[in-house]
Every structure is written in structure tokens, then in C-alpha cells.
Design brief:
2 domains, binds 6-O-phosphono-beta-D-fructofuranose, 6 strands, Transcription Elongation Factor S-II, Chain A, 6-stranded mixed sheet, disordered C terminus, alpha/beta, binds manganese (II) ion
Length: 432
């Protein structure tokens, strides 16, 4: 059963929030008219007009529950999108012609972002313009305090990391996992573009956030990494993959975690997986990834620039690698990765631990189904396990698994709005 009942957060998103996001995108293009003229002359302004009419048509389709239409652009993934539309048409319990209000929330929301991409990609010379760039940069700049606090904390930690015993290392890992988890609160699609930068110091608030962690498998993450290190051989490096989510403060928290994994020698290499097109407003593209590291490297704050320079070095040495496979911006949930993107699945199989950031990844891990909350995480993964994996996600949608029997009811009693609120289930699943 897909999330679509009228009361559900899914319905509220499609009816109210997605049109808001589209309106912001149209407004962004209007506000860049002069820039397009300066850069590209009349051609730039005409392209902007065409893109705006594409987007206005899209918003009308969405708001009036029109059928989902096949993609007509020549982009490399459009055939996969159109095959998926056929799959939706032939669903046994489908409601006939796929449309915005009748089809699964996950599908139509992904489809909207892919149509936004098409509106730009089909209108050169503004085809490479990222309509979400401003919001992502603003999140970064407005989180400066928190970024300074985190970089300062981390550089202090690095000074004596060699003297830390196992217990102390474990404590630091747990802190940085939680900073990365809570960094996921700062996303712009959930806030529909409203400011969601990290204002408070990320390390101060960890203690009082503990009660909001619904599933906590940090111990398992620790023992998995310690064992991987023990079994490490000359040939086989310990590799951790971080499937990224949002740019801005969350990305900095992920980079700090990755640096800690290397500096503590818990891992030898970290692979980052970002998005190949602008996605869900604040998700990290290759440009965002490189821009963030450059911004830190050139910051006039000593510890920020130290981080940025070290991270540029990690990329140059190849101990950090950035990838952006197109699968991450398709509508498929991850149980179909092995057949839709076997190359990516094989790549993930090389990892000792996959860290999936954020709510959208969690929904794709669990098929975005209305699971009973106490269904085990392993079962909801529906045979997707290329490697041991862990989800670091703040709850922003209706899907939740892996709770203890009765835990869902308990939370419901104390906070009826908890689905789509801001508690943070934190779950590890190691392959059986
Ligand atoms: O950035 P995150 O954590 O993936 O959150 C994105 C989530 O926000 C939403 O847009 C909220 O509606 C969901 O559709 C999506 O899963
Ligand atoms: Mn996101």
C-alpha cells in the first residue's frame, strides 16, 4: 500500500509543498533574467522564458492531477524513466493512468525534480543552470557558526588523535555519527526551500537529542569497523561509502566524519556518492561537493581552511573519491538496483560499510511502503544488501521500520505528529 491517504504527509506534500517548490524555482529564474542577458544576450532571455513556461505548465499539471507524461528529452536516463512509467501503468493494484495524486508519492516527487531538470536542460544556453544553487549556498553561509564550531572541534581532536585509546575513539565516532545524523535536519525540500541552516553548535546539542533517536545501532557500526580493520590485509583496504544527501552544513558534517574515519585509521578510503543533476532542492551535486571544499579551503578561519586543504589533498591522493551514478536520481527503490544499475551494485559490493544519509534514501531502501513500524529493517530492504549498511536519517515521511514491538504506539501516544516530524531513527543493518 503506498502512502497516499488524504491525511498522510504524502498528500500534503503533493498538494501544497511541491507547488511551493516549483513556484520558488520559477521565481529564481525570473530573478536571474539580467544575469542570463549579461552572459548570453537575447538567447539567454528567450531560454529563460521557455524554461519558465515549461515549469508553469508542470505546476498546472501537478495541481490539477493531470496524467504523468513520458519524458521527451534526449537525456541519457529518459528511456529508464519511460520504462518506469510503463511499469506504473501496469501495476496490478494501480489506479489506471498514472497521475500526480493517484500514483505513489515517491514516484511523482522524483518525477517532478526530473521534469525541472528537463526544463533547464532543454533550453540552452541556460541548460547547466542549477535552480537550487542559491538555496544550497545560503544554507552553507548561514551555517557558518556551526561549521566553524565543528571544524574547530575536529582540528583539536586531530591534534591528539594518536593518543586516544579504543574507548575514546569509539566515543568520538559516536559523536560524529550523531552530528552527521542531525545534520540531516538541514534539508531544503522538507522545508520547501525555507531556511533550514544549522544555527546552534552541533556538538552542544547532542546530549539533549539522544531521546529523539528511535533506533540506535552505533555499537554495531563500531564493531563492524573494528573487525574490518582487524581482518584488513595488504591487498584489501577498508572502504566506507557515504551515499550523500544535502549540501550545506550536512555535507560538511559528512566530510568531517569521513576525515575522522581516515585519521583514526578505521578506514583507508571513503567513496562519496552524490547526484548527477540538481535534486530535492538541497541534494549534493559534484559541483556542490567541490564548491564546499574550495569554500572551506579559502575561508579566513584557520580551522575551516585547514579542513578544506586536507580534503583537497585526500581527493588528490585518491583516498577520497566522488561518484555520481545516474541511478540515484531515478525513481526506483534500491531493491531494483542490481538489475537496473548492476555496475553500481557491483561497486557498492566492494565496500565494508555503506552509510546512507537522509530520508529519501531511507524511503528508497524500504520501498516507501506503509510498513508496520516493527517490521525488521532487513526485511524492508527486500534483498538489497550489496554490503553492510546503515541509514542515518531524520524522519520526514511516513515510512518507518525497525522499531521494537509497541515502540511505535508509544511514540504515537506522546506525539501524534511524529511521522514527518523530526525524531531521528538511526538504524544499522549488517548483511545476514
Ligand atoms: O533530504 P532528505 O533527508 O532526503 O529529505 C527529503 C525528504 O523531504 C521530503 O521532500 C519531505 O516531503 C521527502 O519527500 C523527502 O524524502
Ligand atoms: Mn535531500
Amino acid at each position: 500500500m503506498f502512502n497516499k491517504c488524504i491525511k498522510s504527509f504524502a498528500y500534503f506534500t503533493i498538494k501544497d509543498r511541491l507547488p511551493q517548490i516549483l513556484t520558488r524555482v520559477i521565481d529564481t529564474l525570473h530573478r536571474h533574467k539580467n544575469e542570463f542577458f549579461e552572459e548570453h544576450g537575447e538567447k539567454g532571455v528567450e531560454a529563460e522564458k521557455r524554461a519558465i513556461s515549461f515549469l508553469s505548465k508542470l505546476r498546472n499539471e501537478l495541481q490539477t492531477d493531470k496524467p504523468v507524461t513520458p519524458l521527451e528529452d534526449e537525456l541519457p536516463d529518459s528511456a529508464l524513466w519511460n520504462q518506469y512509467l510503463d511499469y506504473q501503468r501496469n501495476l496490478p493494484n494501480g489506479n489506471g493512468e498514472p497521475s500526480w495524486f493517484q500514483s505513489p508519492w515517491l514516484y511523482v516527487e522524483c518525477y517532478m525534480y526530473r521534469r525541472i531538470h528537463a526544463a533547464l536542460a532543454q533550453n540552452p544556453p541556460i541548460d547547466n543552470f542549477d535552480v537550487f544553487k542559491e538555496g544550497k549556498a545560503q544554507n552553507f553561509f548561514e551555517s557558518q557558526e556551526a561549521i566553524i564550531a565543528l571544524c574547530t572541534y575536529f582540528q583539536e581532536l586531530l591534534k591528539n588523535i594518536k593518543d586516544l585509546d579504543e574507548k575514546q575513539l569509539q566515543e568520538e565516532l559516536f559523536k560524529l555519527l550523531q552530528v552527521s545524523l542531525w545534520g540531516n535536519k538541514c534539508d531544503l525540500s522538507f522545508s520547501a526551500g525555507e531556511d533550514s541552516s544549522q544555527k546552534s553548535s552541533p556538538l552542544q546539542s547532542l546530549e539533549n537529542m539522544i531521546p529523539y533517536i528511535l533506533v540506535n545501532d552505533m555499537e554495531k557500526v563500531w564493531s563492524l569497523l573494528v573487525n574490518a580493520k582487524k581482518n584488513r590485509t595488504e591487498r584489501s583496504n577498508v572502504r566506507v561509502d557515504i551515499i550523500l544527501d544535502n549540501a550545506g552544513f550536512e555535507l560538511v558534517s559528512d566530510l568531517v566524519l569521513a576525515d575522522f574515519l581516515l585519521s583514526s585509521k578505521l578506514a583507508d578510503e571513503v567513496y562519496f556518492h552524490g547526484k548527477s543533476i540538481p535534486w530535492y532542492v538541497s541534494d549534493t551535486t559534484k559541483h556542490d561537493f567541490n564548491w564546499t571544499i574550495k569554500q572551506l579551503g579559502s575561508a579566513n578561519h584557520m580551522w575551516m581552511s585547514r579542513c578544506g586543504i586536507n580534503w583537497e589533498g585526500n581527493l588528490k591522493k585518491g583516498v577520497w573519491v566522488f561518484r555520481d551514478h545516474m541511478f540515484w536520481t531515478l525513481p526506483h527503490d534500491f531493491s531494483s538496483m542490481s538489475e537496473v544499475a548492476p555496475d553500481l551494485y557491483a561497486e557498492l559490493q566492494k565496500s565494508n560499510l555503506l552509510l546512507f544519509k537522509g530520508d529519501l534514501n531511507y524511503r528508497k531502501l524500504t520501498g516507501d511502503r506503509k510498513w508496520e513500524c516493527s517490521v525488521p529493517f532487513h526485511q524492508a530492504l527486500n534483498k538489497f544488501h550489496p554490503a553492510p549498511l546503515c541509514s542515518l536519517r531524520t524522519l520526514k515521511s511516513d515510512t518507518q521500520v525497525g522499531l521494537k514491538p509497541g515502540q511505535g504506539e508509544e511514540i504515537q501516544a506522546s506525539d501524534p505528529e511524529w511521522m514527518g516530524g523530526c525524531s531521528a531513527p538511526f538504524a544499522l543493518r549488517s548483511t545476514g
